[in-house]
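note to self: dont lose this again. the chain is below, predicted strucutre after it. 185 aa total, dont forget to put it in the shared folder this time
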Amino acid sequence: MSFAKAYFISLVVYISLNLAFTLIFYMLLGSLDIFIIAFSNLSFIGFALFGSIIFTPTLNVFMLTIFVALGTAMPSQAGNYVLAITILFIGYFITQIVSSFTAGRLSESRGAAFGAWMLTAFTCGMLLLLFTILGDSGSVGLLTGSVMFFGGTLNFLVLLILLACLINGIFYGCIALLSLKSMNL
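---
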């Protein structure tokens, strides 16, 4: 019972936080109407709910460094975009940390904590892939457009998402292990 509870609650926390930070991103840009209109696109829904799973911790740090440096170098030209994208990438960290922490706190053993977070990561990745494949041709350019730009195919997209899920599962799974209430085997 503990494993299922930890898994489902961490999945709900993950989806809720991811959607909240995506909403904050669009609110900071002042384009909430675009967010509402884009919610008719299946690929956008998938990315709004599960998109942060493809950003590994190192990619998050890299993107944050670039956008903070960009905002520092030319603050007048960057405007709210740098602030919005910085908040979004910080949100990607917070989403995965909080949901893995939740999985760890609700589990009764190390295996359940790590497994609940790993299953959450792979579930989010597979749902993102499903939403991306089922979406229309004008889908989210950040995922499918960048993969196709580098000559990737659907197989490459699946490999990219699986690898990101594995990296995030192991990295944030350690947070789930550290957040256990008791250290039972």
